[in-house]
Design a protein that fits this description.
two-stranded antiparallel ribbon
Length: about 170
Amino acid sequence: MGPTDRPPPTTGFLLWHVSLRWRVAVDRALAPLDLTHATYGLLATLHGLSRDGLEPSQRELADYSGLEPMYISKLARSLQRSGLLERAESQTDPRAWRLTLTDRGNRVLRKAVATVQALHDRLLAPLGGTKSTRSLELKDALWVLLKSFESHPRTKVRPALRQPAGRGRK
């Protein structure tokens, strides 16, 4: 079997490689801000939940983001040492830590969001850009796949994700 006789790559293989390259691209773009894709994800998720008036615990952030609670704890401690967020013991649950962005965390996050948005524009340019029909169809398809995991006991890992209001395709 020669190189041209190989079967085409599977969808899983393609998703895996796109996600690896996407994560590396985000890590590299955020490096000047001393952030990684994971720390950016935690800060952005915390900001989004806080904007809705919530003060999520580390556990709630883990449940919402789909990341492991121990990983969220590690990231939160690192971001606290960097002065980007504060961790405070919960008034209602002595085992829980409430997370809030600091002023510095909000400033860094604003820069990071602009950086990531510009990167997304560049990464999605082959599909016509972030607002193109092809990009919106890709996003819709990814949502369908992600939601399908929640209905299968063997693939459900965290409580149901909610598609952000106003961010899906209309």
